[in-house]
Amino acid sequence: MQTFDLTTADQDFIAEVESRSHQNLKTCYQCGNCTAGCPYTFAYDYSVSQIMRLIQAGQKEAVLQSRSLWLCGSCQSCTTRCPNLIDVALVMDVCRHMAREAGYATERAVKVFVDSFLKSVERHGRAYEMGLMVAYMTRSGRIFTDVDLAPTALMRGKLPFKPHPVQGREQVARIFERFRQGGING
Amino acid sequence: MAKIAYYPGCSGLGTSVEYDSSTRAVCRALQVDLVDVEDWSCCGSSPAHTVNHVLSAALSARNLAQVEGMGLDQVATPCPSCLTNLRTAAHKMAHQDFRDQVNALLDIPCRTNVETKSVLQVFDEQVDPQLILSKVVNPLTGIKIACYYGCIMNRPPVLMRFDDHENPMAMDRLMCALGAEVLPFPLKVECCGASYGIPRGDIVARLSGKLLDAARRLGADCLVTACPLCQMNLDLRQGQINRALGENFQMPVFYYTQLMGYALGLDRTELGLNKLCVDPHRVLGKIKQPVPVK
Ligand code: SF4
Ligand code: SF4
Q1: Architecture of the domain delimited by B4-120
Q2: How many other CB atoms are there within 10 angstroms of residue B69's CB atom?
Q3: Which residue's CA lies nearest to atom 8 of ligand 1?
Q4: What is the mean pLDDT of chain A?
């Protein structure tokens, strides 16, 4: 069993998660309802209720390095079923933001996918699936991912070769630009 | 019915073209007056909210502002992921601080007086069931179906405010009215693996595999979905799932609008049944006394 030294609680970390999520984390009494309903537990290193406990105990490094943050599917089961009305999925999201800002990416393929997706939106104004696949393969070096699906999708006319033009493309690009300039935590 | 703005979502131009075209066809048949959101852009989908909530809300709010510019106060989308993002943006922007941060990223500020609904909710709440019944020419008698809503169409209930969050029934009711035998599917709101198909295919194989298995054990002829991502994971990836799990699923996965259109006798090309990866014709052949369609 893994043990954590509770005297090393990082109070600033606890406060930051609370203020960015607007949730009162002290009310979590470890009933485990969130974990019971979480479909991703099999793939997690820490279950979602363990993440909640680690946050309460101020174990910043353990939380921000957890692979679970990157694998949470935001399915809202935990939020819907928490008896203390904690928006648990939001807490997971906030920790994921903090992990990203701190430079962690313990599930690198997931981060590369997210980055490729947003690059595609910044460039075209819309998600362009064909371009996204190519960008993802290039950046991740995982050439063979899903190549088996491309012929099926192409044959059914589901992967247009060209992005659809959005006139407001520049407006969308400016959203990203201003976001980067602003250094917003949200 | 008053005009409703329509937000197709990016996948409607690609992997879910048949959802978009069948939705439009069914709306036309049921006199739901949709007008496309002018020059709509991506809502940010799930990647944006995993990076930052202000960025995510701004990508969505640009579209809400477009709807406001059209003088409309309702927007409908077929996609639950778009629905969640647009609703979350409006919900969070009720707080002045957050709204200011979002509007600072936008060219045209968003006032958030637009309500976003799923097209399913519009059918459920704004279309007279008698009108639907009166238009059925091809009842779905003889097929057993499992309705799968996906994890976010009804959750969390404080945000989505539609149907039951553990046992939603809107799609069940529709399919039942069209004559299908609707089975009590226990995994209606379980997650299919979301957008992890590309970076972590193993997760999708396991979670979507569980759904296919439950539907099969229930004796369903097919699954019926309301989400482009769920449909893609269950249909386009069904071969991958079979290989990963050593299974042999051959379960057609329809969009509910395709079956609605089929029952209403709408133009087959608009329903896009040939876009489905797992061939649905064997199942459609089970429908009793099909009436020939012009
Ligand atoms: S369901 Fe709520 S109270 Fe129970 S362990 Fe999870 S977060 Fe804590
Ligand atoms: S939102 Fe994330 S943590 Fe919560 S149940 Fe779903 S996958 Fe698990």
Answers
A1: Up-down Bundle (1.20)
A2: 12
A3: A28
A4: 87
Output the pLDDT for position A134: 62
Is residue A127 one of the residues assigned to a domain? yes
Domain ranges of chain B: 4-120, 138-284
Q: Which residues contact B108 (CB under 8 A, 6 or more apart)?
A: A171, B62, B65, B69
For B138-284, CATH number?
Answer: 3.40.50.11810
Between A6 and A55, whose confidence is greater?
A55
Query: Of A52, A84, A101, which marks where a domain is finished?
Result: A101
Say what the ipTM of the complex is: 0.92
Do residue A29 and residue A71 come from a single domain? yes
Domain membership of residue A185 (yes or no) is no
Q: Ligand 2 site: residues with CB under 6 angstroms?
A: A 37-38, 40, 48, 72-78, 88-89, 92
- pTM for this one? 0.92
d(CA A18, CA A152) in angstroms, rounded, equals: 46
> What is the number of domains present in chain A?
2
- B residues 134-193 closer than 8 Å to A (CB): 151-152, 155-157, 165-166, 189-191, 193
Question: Is the backbone peptide bond immediately before A83 cis, with ω within 30 degrees of 0?
Answer: no
Instruction: Give residue-wise pLDDT tens across range B82-132.
Output: 999 999 999 999 999 999 999 999 999 999 889 999 999 999 999 999 999
Cβ–Cβ below 8 Å for B275 and A157: yes
Q: Residue B280 is encoded by which pair of tokens?
A: 């649905």
